[in-house]
Amino acid sequence: MGLGRQDRCTVLPQRDWIRGSFNVCVFVEVNPRTTACRKVVFRCPMPHKLAEAIYPGSIDEKLSCEVGAYAWVEENCPEIRTPHLFGFGFSDNLHFTHTKHTPFLPRFSRRLWRFVHRLLRLPLLSCYITNPTSHHVPSAYMLLEYLGPETGRMLSDTFDMHREDEARRQRLFRGISRILLSLARVPQQRIGSLCFNNDGTVTLTNRPLSCSMMILENEGAARTMQPDETFACTETFVSDMLTFHDHRFLNQPNAAYDEQDCRGQMAVKALLRVLSHNFIKRDLRNGPFLLQLTDFHASNLLVDKCWNVTGLLDLEWICARPSEMFSAPYWLTGCAIDGIEGENLDRFNQVRQEFMYIFEEEEQARKGRTIGSITLSRVMQDMWDSKGVWFWYCLSSVNAMYFLLETHLLPPKSLSLEAERIISRFWSRDSEDVVRRKLADKQAYDEELRRLFTE
Fold this sequence. Notes:
40% of the residues lie in helices and 15% in strands. It is built from 13 helices and 16 strands. Strand 3 (23-31) and strand 4 form a beta hairpin. It comes from Colletotrichum shisoi.
């Protein structure tokens, strides 16, 4: 941060800290002698939420992807307002600082090398350089700018109050559309996540690490994609994602309550494989792939009083994914994804059409600045018309597939108990053994739970 020896930093009391789904945010007040006091966020990932005990290195993988996203967005999407990333450190005590906060010579040297990389079309060289220190930080971390009320409030603070206000809603949709289109402006050649490398470069060389994938791995799901694995074809990505959900089911001891529930889940997984080819567009199967926010929610957006979008709070879980996965956010009507049916579905479609109208306007306005020939609004509408949007939500959600398949992808009342029993046999060659094993797992789980509560 370029602080002097006389500058003072004060860690705010623990009651002011924020604990999110994956990180703890510690607020620090910085009092430089020459400028006004400001607040920064010292953010540390929580190992018990990121599968670190099961898969060592998960924290550094997650941090590398997030930092890579910050560096990429700074370079390619300066119009998206995000917190400035001052610096960060990995668990191996390797620290990096933005060149804005370094002396002239290293700053000038990095600027020169960045020019060389652009000239020779080498991988993006970020503005972050190593910053050796004798201090050992016992955790990976990021040091971020604090975006306070002067920038905006979290959308979630006023979403329920004003979501029926048409004028506010349209301004929100325009801001969201601009963010989504800005991220998608540069097509990617593979499915995966951006990765910050130790030499300061940013490459798309990490597996497509999403929020739901990390949650399921933390719950014990077997890893099907290695950290350095990316995909050049949509079919292989879909197959591995379905296999990942299969492994989650097999590894979770309380995944099935009884035989009927077990066979129902097996039938759903078998049917998703059968249906998958219907929702992969042949002309897009080999790309280009587009950067998308895989954990986009109302608490991630900053807005003013009129719901103009003023900032994006974090860049966690950004992945390059198939264009078919682009869709209007499911939460626009305040309904959970497993509640979008009947009247709620009609209302969601009405709001979705409002969103798509504005999205198309923004897409047309950007035509001259967009790389590639994809008309995203057309792809999104095709996925809605074919109901493919629900298939992709089945893949990306933690457990919504069991509701979404029967509600949106199958004919009404077609998945009877007898149908589930028959179809479940095709999920695995040893389907009967799987059922017996899952019932035994559930019994052992219940016994262990009773033992823990009676001791």
